[in-house]
Amino acid sequence: MGFNPYRKFQAKRADYLFVIAAAIASLALVVWAFFG
Hints:
Blueprint: H1 13-35
């Protein structure tokens, strides 16, 4: 599958879940670094 730069990006539910999971993981790492 080629990447079409002119296609309008539509975020799917999985995209939001991935962003939220990454944010939680980074936040957990920061908390662990300070309080671990």
